[in-house]
Amino acid sequence: MRLKFLGTGDAFGSGGRFNTCFLAERGEQSFLIDCGASAMISMRRFGADPNRIGGILLSHLHGDHFGGLPFFILDAQFVSKRTRPLLIAGPEGTSARLEALMEVMFPGSAKWERKFAIEHIELKLEKAATLGALGVLATAFPVIHPSGSPSLALRLDCDGKVISYSGDTEWTDSLVDAARGADLCILECYWYQRKGSFHLDWHTLREKLPLLEARRVILTHLSQEMLKQVSAIPLEVAADGLEVEI
């Protein structure tokens, strides 16, 4: 399995980076982790075929993490001519929030007839869920990041590998359970030194890293402050277009 970082930025385009969107490449069972508002642009930029994506897994329902879904769905309908089902998994409330988002952005689009089915799976906290034909076992953990519905860290078990993803959050011990023994742990690290609510900062994370027990850690979702300090960080830091083998 190969993971491609299609978007590694924050909500504000810091450093000219795209919103959060990661592609786990597994042939016809490929899936996206988060689908920020710029996701379709980054997919076109980096040559990702939307029709090879079987599912989209969401950490939380902020625009820079799920705001690309209306564009993905309408591209599937009118441009990519999708016929295979699409699975969307996320926190409780995902289905209703997506319908509302589509109606705001493209009135009437939530009800348009499509040539493909959308299956919604709303993840329960700390309860593993098998994601249909994707063959992914997903476990959601609660994190601290108000978003109008539960915000999640995700632990994804597939192809004998484990990907852990913090979503957006300040430090919480649930990240330890999500990351333990993971082959790849993707952590947001918005701040460098400043301690702000609802996001991780490097100085706190540096102290907590030994608790995670992950085989590999890559940082993402960087603010302008954090981007200025990248050369001082002794961990891998993602950039748009980075590809890693898991």
Structure, described:
- The protein has seven helices and 14 strands.
- The chain has 246 residues and is of the alpha/beta class.
- The longest helix has 12 residues, at 94-105.
- It is globular.
**Broad structural category:** alpha/beta
Helical content class = 10-25%
CATH class: Alpha Beta
Strand order of the largest sheet: 6-5-4-3-2-1-14
Tell me the name of the CATH homologous superfamily. Answer: Ribonuclease Z/Hydroxyacylglutathione hydrolase-like
The pLDDT mean sits at 97
N-to-C order of helices and strands? EEEHEHHEHEEEEEHEHEHEE
Largest sheet: 7 strands, mixed
Low-pLDDT runs of 5+ residues are none
Distance separating the two termini: 6 Å
Q: What gross morphology would you assign?
A: globular
Count of distinct strands: 14
Beta-strand share of residues: 25-35%
What do we call the CATH topology? Metallo-beta-lactamase, Chain A
Number of helices: 7
